[in-house]
Amino acid sequence: MSGPDKPLTDDLGEAVPLRGAPTRVVSLVPSLTEAVELTLPGIVAGATDYCTHPDALAAPRVGGSKYPDVDAVLELAPDLVLANAEENRKEDVERLRGQGVPVWVMAAPATVPSALRSLRALFTGILGTGAPDWLVTAEELWRESRSPAMTAVVPVWRKPWVVLGRDTFGGDVLRRLGVRHAYSADDERYPRPKIGELRELFAAGKADVLVLPDEPWEFTADDGPDAFPGVPYTLVSGRYLTWYGPSLVEAHQALSAALTTVTREVRSAR
């Protein structure tokens, strides 16, 4: 593997002035941590507290994505830091760059293909590798979209209720598997509707099912469905719904199975 001999740019067009192929990467994004460590084992020298995959990752922790300990990042002497425009703060990125640390910032992906394009650019350009096998497989699996079979409300938080809105990666995952989400045309990416508004969508037949991920809010059979008596629901892995990386290969089959089951339940109730 040979590194680039001139500055490259990230998704936002900012220069990433590498001095060769990175060997010590600090990732501030759980999805990117998994993608990079599985592809290049041992390269991740630091990660956030929320970087739960790969399971065996033993890298030092540098706090959360929104509020990382920048001093701890600098102490790890990374030759590259990975960030995301939505998950990480601009001021932290600028401080790292001000200390001479190259930072690659991924744009917040609105679709599965846009996320995969960013990952391909990261591996083939910044990290100097070819596209990993899991990326090629994910590109093939997620290329097509199914015809919509039902409409879902997709909460990602409770107290207050927050749902998937327009231009979200998770929304596009569902769309490609044949599920519209009720707030896809909302002005906000993450609307905060009142519970009464959400219940009315089901009462009026404008939504058919609840899709409840286990992160960032950990929805369970006892926490989430209780607010919507009688509404069909499915519990899904938040990692499968919102992470962009190797999990997308497993996610296609796992989410398809869960959505097929609840679709049958919805149809039998009609």
UniProtKB/TrEMBL annotation:
InterPro entries for the chain: ABC_Transporter_SBP, Vit_B12_bind_prot
Gene3D superfamilies: Nitrogenase molybdenum iron protein domain
Annotated NCBIfam families: TroA_like (NF038402)
Family membership: Belongs to the bacterial solute-binding protein 8 family.
Entry protein name: ABC-type Fe3+-hydroxamate transport system, substrate-binding protein
